[in-house]
Every structure is written in structure tokens, then in C-alpha cells.
Amino acid sequence: MFAPREALDGRGGEPLPAKATMHTPTTAGDTYLELHGVHKRYGGFTALESIDLAIARGEFVCFLGPSGCGKTTLLRTIAGLETQTAGRILQAGRDISVLPPAQRDYGIVFQSYALFPNLSIADNVAYGLVNRRQPRAQIAARVDELLALVGLPGSGGKYPAQMSGGQQQRVALARALATSPGLLLLDEPLSALDAIVRVRLRNEIRALQRELGVTTVMVTHDQEEALSVADRIVVMNHGVIEQVGTPAQVYREPASPFVAEFIGKVNRLQAVAEGGGWFRCGDKRLQCAPGAGADFRAGRAVQLYLRPEDRIVGTLGDDTPGLCTGRVLRIEFLGGNCLAEVDVDGLPGQPLQLQYSLNQMDEFGVREGALLRFALRMDRLRVFPAAEGVQA
């Protein structure tokens, strides 16, 4: 359940009630939404190509990618707001590929809230219930329940213009859940909000989704947002799926150079394979974990990817694998952590970004111009073929 908390922006919200029921939470495992070979073309432009995806019942999935990658088109295709050029979509075993939106079982929340400005908050939330011709008393009870669920009890008589952005998005969420849909679609619902409200609301959406057990698909271009709320992330680029995995998998085990560079910060080093999982990078020899790069033939140009936090600091012997020394060129302050750009001895023209906590900055004397001693976590290396045109 939600823990009691204050309104997102400090005005107009109340703590959530101790109990609220809608869907019975389900255990993710059985497939609820299936996409098979979904294509979408606009004339000569391919927006989606060969999309195959299975989403479990009760799962929270994020479509993540840069602008124009096809994630919103895919969401709209699931909703029936766009018609796929080819492919099938099944929801709970039912083929919905050609059904109009009104005949599909989902609620949707848009980035722009899309509330009716001339209707009260209660009437906005009740809109889908009225269309189903439910009794007035039942509708009123349901609206009260929903407004309490999203932390806005007693707000039914207000109008959208009287609500803050965070409150309006809560109302839009309540409206989307009013008919108890089996699927909740969120189209960048937080991008119009300021940073503090966005973080609080995303946490509340995640807690609400867990409480209700509703299968949820959210589109976002914010990687931090996706990493913090999703059970699985679908990383998209140029209309195709690059990788599907848990937040930890797409961050720690990127399946392509695009995923490695799009998710989080990463160091990219040009190297040459020596065989047996060893690579020559400048004057250094680095070895990846077994199976992570042993299939690259000797002489093959490759790219090594390593996260800024994938380093070892402290007391290091001269025989420590991946041992490096280097001088700090500049420091980027990020609050609780900092990124130090280091010119590494033996890696000419390939400076590394290393992450240090504020305490470590003091402990190891990390400052501009300082000489640092550290070791690379070679077990964290990800190896991909070099970009086209790069010679060994």
C-alpha cells in the first residue's frame, strides 16, 4: 500500500487512505500483451520494423529511446490510435489488431493531461463511466474512491485550471483507471512537470501500479525515469528494438553500442583484439570476462565500454590487473558524486571519466591536476566491433 504522504507540490493533496481496492494484484508470469511482427510505415518512411514483444500480466514496461525512435508510435499502435501496416497484437489472448480504440481494454494518460477544461474534476474522472451508463450513485462512489487513491480527496468540485500540473496529471491517471482497465498506457506522462514533482509522481505511479497489479506500458525518453520504475525496459532506436531487459541488465549488460552509450554514462576505448579475450588499448593489455569477447579474432578492431564507476581505488599493488595512473584534467560536480576526467598514462588521446563519491574525493585527493592511481574493473568490460571505417 501507499504510505501516507503530502501532496506533490504542497497544495491541495491529502495523504492516501490506508486501504483502496481496484484490481487484485497479480503475479507477473503469464503473458498479457503480445506483439508479433508489427510494422508501421508512412509512405517510404519506416516507423516500426519487425517488433516482437511479450509483456507479462501485472508487469511495468518502459519504452525508452531518443526522440523519433518509434516508441510513441508503438504505444499508439497498441492503443489503436495508429494502425500497423503489418503484424498482430494480442491482449489477454484476444486479437485486437484491427479493433478500434473503444473496443480495446486500456486506459491512457497523455503528456498534456488532456483534461476537459469545462468539466469539473469529478466529471473528468467520471467521463468513461458515464459513457458506460452506470448508475449515478455508483459513479459518484467510484470517483470519490479514485480521487482518494491518487491523493486528491475532496477535489471533485474543482476545475483543471485550479489545479497544479502534478495534480492535473493525478486526475488524468484517476480517469484512466476509472473503468478498471486491464492495461494502462502512459505516454510521457511526466515530461511536462518540473524535476521535483516529476520524481515524486513517478514513485507514486510505480507504487500505485504495484498496488493495483495493472499491466502498464510507459513511454519515456528519460533513462533515469525508466531505470527507477520499470520491471523491464524496451530500448528502441530507429524503429527497432535494440534490447529488452531488466534495468540492471540494460545498464550492466548492454546488447549493442547504442544501448551502452544511451543508458547512463560510459567510457569508450578503441582497442585491438589479441585473441583469448585479451585486447590491446594504447600501451595497455586488458582482458575481458570469459565469454565476453573471446570470439574476436586477433587483429580485429573493437570498442571497449566501461562505466565510470567500474574502477577500483584504495591500496593497489603493482601487479593489480588493470592498474592505471593518470592526471585529473577536470571535475564535473553532480551532487553526491563527481566525475573526474583523467588523462591515463598509456592511453594517449583516450581520457577516462571516473566516478567518485564526495567522501572519496576527499579521501583520495581527487582534484584538478592531481595524480591518481586506480585499477579498471576488467570483469565489467563490454566489447563490440569497432565502428565502420575504424582500422585495426
Write the layout of secondary structure elements.
Elements: E1 31-42, E2 45-56, E3 60-64, H1 71-79, E4 86-91, E5 94-95, E6 107-109, H2 121-131, H3 136-149, H4 165-177, E7 183-187, H5 195-212, E8 215-220, H6 223-229, E9 232-237, E10 240-245, H7 247-252, H8 257-262, E11 267-275, E12 278-281, E13 284-287, E14 301-306, E15 311-312, E16 323-333, E17 337-344, E18 352-357, H9 358-363, E19 371-376, E20 382-385
Parallel strand pairs: 3-8, 3-9, 6-7, 7-8
Antiparallel strand pairs: 1-2, 1-4, 4-5, 9-10, 11-12, 11-14, 12-13, 14-20, 15-19, 16-17, 16-19, 17-18
Which strand order spans the largest sheet, edge to edge or round the barrel? 6-7-8-3-9-10
Low-confidence stretches: 1-28
Question: How would you state the average pLDDT, rounded?
Answer: 89
Strand content: 25-35%
Summarize the amount of helix as a percent range: 10-25%
Largest sheet: 6 strands, mixed
Would you tell me the structural class of the helices and strands?
A: alpha+beta
List the secondary-structure elements in sequence, H or E: EEEHEEEHHHEHEHEEHHEEEEEEEEHEE
Number of helices: 9
Q: Which value, in Å, is the CA radius of gyration?
A: 25 Å
- What separation lies between the terminal Cα atoms? 56 Å
Rough outline: elongated
Q: How many DSSP E strands? A: 20
